[in-house]
Write a structure and sequence with these properties.
The strands form 3 sheets. The chain has a 6-stranded parallel β-sheet with strand order 3-2-1-4-5-6, with helices on both faces. It has a 6-stranded parallel β-sheet with strand order 11-10-9-12-13-14. 44% of the residues lie in helices and 14% in strands. The protein contains 18 helices and 14 strands. It is of the alpha/beta class. The longest helix is centred in the middle third of the chain and has 32 residues. Helix 17 links the parallel strand 12 and strand 13. The N and C termini lie far apart (57 Å). The structure holds nicotinamide-adenine-dinucleotide. The site of nicotinamide-adenine-dinucleotide has 26 residues, from helix 1 and helix 5.
Length: 434
């Protein structure tokens, strides 16, 4: 099949490369000429494990190409995907659909013959109807089916998630469109991946319900972690004890500094807005948003308490990990964006390291960026782990302690065992463990 992919970001680039790897002929289009130039010259604009090789192999095989010229990509395409950003609209939390509608207008002017327009971006219920109306307005004679196909990949494991997903959801009523979608995902049918065909609105809502549920699960265990600290219990054992119950499941039960990232914060807000607009508020998610926002802010107080309980004036805090999770360079709504400025406001000097910290350098001012964890620890009054990159899991604690001004470690991801760190002479605070 011939595929055009609007948006060559975290989702568009991975999806485009994976569809090419399935054997389809894919052209990725992006408005960002710098991004396309970089891709055309063999570079990869984001960090995602395995993506460089997947892209290179498929470019080499002639199945994957990049352009800023939408016309080249859309003419003759069987399916045109929209994978552009849907950030939060300032003020009301609704998804900003301006990029989606701009892409839809452009697509409308270019399609020829029967074309399936597929929304892969996360969009509120009813957006597919609007896209269809836009296309019909621009080109009343266009033969088009508008389909919802939300993406569930996780950054850091995006290729594996795309190629071996738990399920594929397709919101399509038109039979010809269903046939095109089946053909696109054929290799997954062979793997016996469940493919769920639904109405378009249902499919749009499935994506938000999934993300909101996961955000709620994380927020639940975070509140249980606070209770564990208060009553002298261990949140990791509580999480294991409940997670072994198959009705609950063990994933997304790691207590931490609050969820961040490119999806959960904006998608929970957008669901709250949609539900209110339709007069059917989802109070659980409204509370989830509120609790999570407060939690990210509270983390700096936890760090202050660990240092001396007063303020951080004149203190140096070393920070390990800034991206919203390991194995990505994505900084969107990362907890570090709340924690680091709050520590700075309390008077701390920050020195930090992240293995993929180029975006963090741009977003966090006044931070002394170091080249490795030991440089971060040097002279620090506290060492804080915000993001659990693998390389932080087996630090030489004796070496760390020897270079710190005071041996205080705040582990916001519970990657160390309390007794191991304390045995090495540290004051050690983690989340939900006493
Ligand atoms: N990042 C994730 O982990 C993830 C997972 C599932 C779903 N999603 C959803 O997928 C969508 C895309 O997310 P992302 O993280 O890939 O965003 P992104 O910001 O990384 O990429 C979006 C790209 O679209 C381009 N773009 C914008 N308007 C365009 C247009 N008219 N024509 C061509 N290109 C255009 C931008 O230049 C940018 O490169 C969002 O709706 C998001 O919620 C993201």
């Amino acid at each position: 099949m011939r595929v055009a992919m609007f948006g060559a970001g975290y989702v568009g680039l991975v999806s485009g490369a994976c569809f090419a790897d399935f054997g389809h002929e894919v052209t990725c289009i992006d408005k960002d000429a710098g991004k396309i130039e970089r891709l055309q010259s063999g570079g990869i604009p984001i960090y995602e494990p395995g993506l460089d090789k997947l892209v290179a192999d498929n470019v080499q095989a002639g199945r994957l190409s990049f352009t800023t010229d939408a016309a080249v990509a859309v003419r003759g395409a069987d399916a045109v995907f929209i994978a552009v950003g849907t950030p939060s609209r300032r003020g009301d939390g609704h998804a900003d659909l301006s990029y989606v509608y701009a892409a839809a207008e452009e697509i409308a002017g270019l399609i020829d013959g029967f074309t399936v327009v597929v929304t892969k971006s996360t969009v509120p219920v009813g957006t597919g109807d609007e896209i269809e109306a836009t296309i019909k307005r621009v080109r009343p004679e266009a033969m088009v089916a508008v389909v919802s196909n939300p993406e569930f990949l996780r950054e850091g494991a995006a290729i594996e998630d795309f190629k071996r997903p738990d399920r594929v959801v397709v919101g399509a009523e038109d039979e010809r469109a269903q046939a095109v979608m089946r053909e696109l995902y054929r290799p997954l049918f062979l793997n016996e991946t469940p493919i769920q065909f639904t109405g378009r609105r249902t499919s749009e809502l499935i994506k938000y319900a999934a993300n909101a549920f996961l955000a709620m699960k994380i927020t639940f265990i975070n509140e249980v972690a606070d209770l564990c600290e208060a009553v002298g219990a261990d949140v990791q054992q509580v999480a294991r004890g409940i997670g072994l119950d198959k009705r609950i499941g063990g994933k997304f039960l790691n207590a931490g500094p609050g969820y961040g990232g490119s999806c959960f914060p904006k998608d929970t807000l957008a669901l709250v807005k949609t539900a209110r607009d339709y007069g059917s508020p989802i109070k659980l998610i409204e509370t989830t948003v509120e609790v999570n926002d407060a939690r990210k802010k509270a983390m700096s107080q936890k760090i202050t308490r660990a240092v001396d309980g007063q303020d951080l004036a004149g203190k140096t805090v070393g920070v390990l990990g800034l991206t919203f999770k390991p194995n990505t360079d994505d900084m969107r709504d990362a907890p570090s964006l709340d924690i680091v400025p709050a520590l700075q406001a309390a008077g701390a000097k920050i020195q930090a390291f992240d293995p993929e910290g180029h975006e963090a350098r741009r977003m966090l001012g006044g931070v002394d960026f170091k080249e490795d964890p030991y440089d971060v620890a040097a002279g620090a009054d506290a060492l804080v782990i915000i993001t659990e990159w693998d390389q932080f899991r087996a630090l030489d604690l004796d070496r760390i302690r020897a270079v710190m001004a005071t041996p205080v470690m705040v582990d916001l991801r519970n990657i160390y065992k309390t007794e191991d760190v304390r045995a090495r002479g540290f004051r050690y605070l983690s989340v939900g463990r006493t």
